[in-house]
Amino acid sequence: MPEWTENQKKAIFHHGHDILVSAAAGSGKTTILVERIIELLKNNENVDNLLVATFTDPAAAEMKERLIKRIKESVAQDELDPAQKQHMQSQIYKVAVSNISTLHAFCLSVIKKYYYVIDLDPSFRLLSDETERTLLEEQAFDNVRNKYYQKDDTDFIDLTENFSNDKSDDGLADTIYQLYNFAITNAQTDQWLDNLMKSYQVDQSITDSAFYQKKVKPQLLRDLDNIIDETNSLSDIAADDILSQNYVQPLKEGAKVLSNIKESIINGTAFDDIREELAKFKFPRAKAVDKKTKMLSDDDSISKSVASQKTDLKKQVDEQLYNSYFVQNESDTIETIKRSQVIVSKLVEVERAFIKEYDHLKNGNHALDFNDLEHLAVKILNSEVDGQKIALDYYQNRFHEIMIDEYQDVNTMQENIIQLLSNENNHLFMVGDIKQSIYGFRQAAPYIFTGKYQRFQKEDDPNELIQLSKNFRSSVGVDDFVNQIFKKILDRNVGDIDYDDSVKLIPGTNFPEEADTRNEIDILTDQKIVDDTQPAENIDLDESKNIDKRVSKIEFVADRIKQLMDDNYQVFDAKKNQFRDLKYSDIAILMRNKNSNTDLISYFSKAEIPVMVTDAQNYFQTTELQIVMSMLKIIDNPRQDVPLVAVLRSPIVGLNEEELAQIRLADRTQDYYAAILAYIKADNTDLATKLASFLERLEGYRDFANKNSLVKLIWKIYQETGILEYVSGMPGGKQRSANLHALYQRANSYEKNNFMGLHKFINFIQRMQDMDRDLSQPNSIETTDDTVKVMTIHASKGLEFPIVILLNIDDNFNNKDYTSDTLYDVHTGIGISVLNQVSRANVRTIQRSLISDQKQVAGVSEEMRLLYVALTRAKQKLVLVGFNKEPTKMLSNWEHVRTNQQGVINEGARINAHSYQNLIGMSIIPDPWTKNNKERDQFSNQKSQMDLNLINLNATEISGSKTKTQQAEEVPTSPIFRDTVDNILDFQYTHQDAVNTTAYQSVSEIKGLFSDPDDDEMARADIINDSGRYFSNQFKKPSFLVETKKVSATDIGSATHLVLQKVPIEQMPTEDIFTDLIKQLVESNVLKKEIAQKIDITSLINFYQSKLGKAIVENSTKVEREFPFSVLMPAEKLFNSTKDSSTSDDKILVHGIIDGVIELEKGIIVFDYKTDNVNSQNLQEKIKTYSGQLNLYAKAISLIKEKPVIGKYLYFLKVNQIEKLD
């Protein structure tokens, strides 16, 4: 017998009244539920007299399995008498058919048993596939829309226009679907739709309306309270900083004005008067800080932060109050509301028509969806037969207790069912955790839980609240970390519950001291983290690399996992009380959404880290699906260039880029399909044969598609192309194969619903993607596989892992729920924007603004609860990974956040946090103005078991991303390619070298071929390679991939050019500026130290002291350094061999990078600096060598800028000599 805590005993043994168990993460709620059932069974209760509702089917299956196991254990014990043992054994066989199920499954059993009560055809099937439901919904709306259009209903046309935009009229359809999702989860759907108009009932005065008094006014006062609190907090911060004290008085005066506006609202001041007060509001200007005060401190970071936050507060007043509620005067606002009432009335009419049509289509298909199960069950329970509610009486008498798991996630419809079944003969046992209510998008109603949570605590309430706060899952480090965060961010206003001692996590598992339970927050940055003592002017803002932050975070996580595995990280098994080596399956990567999954799968595959992604985003963006969908598209219509080329390049045909280019050259005027036909006709090469065979197969598929079903076509493609076998052999082959099989199943669902045709299927898939309803990848790996598990936080609920990596903590919260033009709320109804017929602008109603405010708070509350779920999945260690471009500013913002008397961060700061990273940061960085500094000491103490790491990617090499160069496979140039190039150039060739020259050359390639540089024309080359270029076709490896033992002249030249590119030129560069810049480049791993030491700083200083250098500084705003260009040049200007050509207008594409360009009004100056070892003997030779190159630069830049070149300069740094070319 386990040693139960006192509260666990209450949850197991207390009876005779309703009980709400608030069970924190890891508190063993499922164990408690099972144990409570066991105790009931021991007292001769039957399992089939219990209704146990779970949230998911797997949860129900797990509970049945655990219950059977506990029954068998109880029977094996000696404490039961023979009669009890016999009774318990009889229950084993009843568990399988018991009502331990989801509420949907229970409703289905009600319908199957009592369908006749409501005259329902019992031969229905369940629409369990989202594809089917989506198709039926779209068909229903199309039918409704067509009927209105046929009637030429002008109100409907106005409605459509109001919810549409210039690009599409699908806005009304989206509104209908979303409104349906809200309405259908309400027990009284019709009544809820009727009530939508109530919010728009305003007569002569807005402030006298019930809507304003009951809903808008409290929200305005709440918004004002938050802004006033933030203003006062900012004033306190300013008072504590010597350079910010000039802001104290303006902030106090602003707070006073806001308080007066608040009093005006409380006292019922007229709408337009309040509007005028808000319009005039501004903070008084702060006085300038005198020089004497400035000398007292050289740290102005707080002053700048105060100034910035003061501006933000003014914006909050403007956007949150004035623009949201008072942007129009009262008469115009009333007019907008009346116009809205007409629109909403018509919208409700169309919504009812849609629901009716959708039901009609479902009936025609003998189908029900999940929403139907709940509504029909309620209808059956409330229906009378011969004056008696036979179904309701049966279930109320049958169930002696009703147990609800995950009670925090029930919606109003489900709560209605629960209350219907409950009566004086049975009681409710509800288990949940409001801190884990994360299904708002399914219209979960956490206020149902919190209502009982507060009510059951009252002394006069007969029911009981039981708190389970002991966490038997996680280490002390995880518990302390979670508590430290949530005591700062969670309260009744934002989060729906106060995170006090009654709900905080209490460690219930002892980890040995030697166990690594340190949590880490790793914030990557691509900006140099600067020491406060370093002069700001020494920092080069262009120093950062162009880093893909999403990929960088994935690479970092892969590295961290490899490091943990390589270090033989030890996992403590609490059940066995022993350590063991870490396995991949001990690690879970959690994210808010699936946006990074495709990149993660790709990178982990390359890094050879086994991974299972439970729900990958961008299913139709995966390579194998793109290939098959492209194939389907060209079967439907082959004259589509992009899908056609995709199939040709894919393994189905297997062409390479050069072959594709050859085909295009066959006909450049028409589509690619025409080019293929032209190529086949003009050539008899193997490529032409391959293309002819492909077109023949394609025509066969098109003919097959006209005579057979879609699923047969897809399977035929799979069989004949071997695509299934091919992708199975690719990295992640098991998943890829599953993806292709899933496409077949999607198509099967599509046709089962009486939707036919390839073209319609392609359009359907496109609509799914356009609506961001991309279908998920199927799961192809068993959970028992030794793989890193990747999933959304939602999918992780109820699971646990030794190590949890929370990725992308810097991602912004989804604000779509409160920024869209049309918003929905269970209580307030619908808030719309009205299209102004004259200005064509959308005017947001105050109803919409109210819902926006409410949903923003609700959204942040749910994000906090999601964070709680994520962090509490960890048993031993948490790794949190984010990104920030300005870490110094980020840390400063966290430090300056204020808390209230309860230690909770101000409401406004929490609502505007925007990311987990900010919520966490504000919680763990102690407030510098807190009188009690114990918290700061704890943060810096090793006992805190938490590390905050700022990782500069510019100074860190992520080992998982080390690049390996591969030699490209050489493909012989085919005759048709060479011949076509010949025809394009149309020269009378006298030299074989020109035949092999491509129409694309870089200046760096061309300049090395000048034997007579002053002539700037290309002479005959002695060596021509097979690629058709006058240079080696092997790409030079990047310098960072080449290990060199000796610094070469080329290395020094490249480094010198880099310094000249980076050095600031707003003022004359000095030795100190050059020295500091080179130091920064070395510290950020851009330059190797040994190369940097070879840079001749004196020569750089001399350059800027020259006439050219001074001109560059004087015209710094007109200078472009390292100017890249790509321009078509006349071929005859590049080749001696073309001078006698009869054609003079043929072009070759030339590209390169010019060291520097000064663009003046009268023309352009081009300059190029050289680091060659020059002396008096070889100077003229060097000038000749580089003149051709610079002449090309001049011609190119003149063509691009459409200005004459008035100066061409070569500067030789070694000898400090400038040469102007003619």
TrEMBL record:
Family annotation (Pfam families): PDDEXK_1, UvrD-helicase, UvrD_C
The keyword Transmembrane is annotated on this UniProt entry: no
Catalytic activity entry: Couples ATP hydrolysis with the unwinding of duplex DNA by translocating in the 3'-5' direction; ATP + H2O = ADP + phosphate + H(+)
InterPro entries, alphabetized: AddA (IPR014152), DNA_helicase_UvrD-like_C (IPR014017), DNA_helicase_UvrD/REP (IPR000212), P-loop_NTPase (IPR027417), PDDEXK-like_dom_sf (IPR011604), PDDEXK_AddAB-type (IPR038726), Restrct_endonuc-II-like (IPR011335), UvrD-like_ATP-bd (IPR014016)
Domain (UvrD-like helicase C-terminal) ranges: 502-798
Enzyme Commission number(s) of this protein: 3.1.-.-, 5.6.2.4
PANTHER family: ATP-DEPENDENT HELICASE_NUCLEASE SUBUNIT A, UVRD / RECB / PCRA DNA HELICASE FAMILY MEMBER
Name recorded for this polypeptide: ATP-dependent helicase/nuclease subunit A
Source organism phylogeny: Bacteria, Bacillati, Bacillota, Bacilli, Lactobacillales
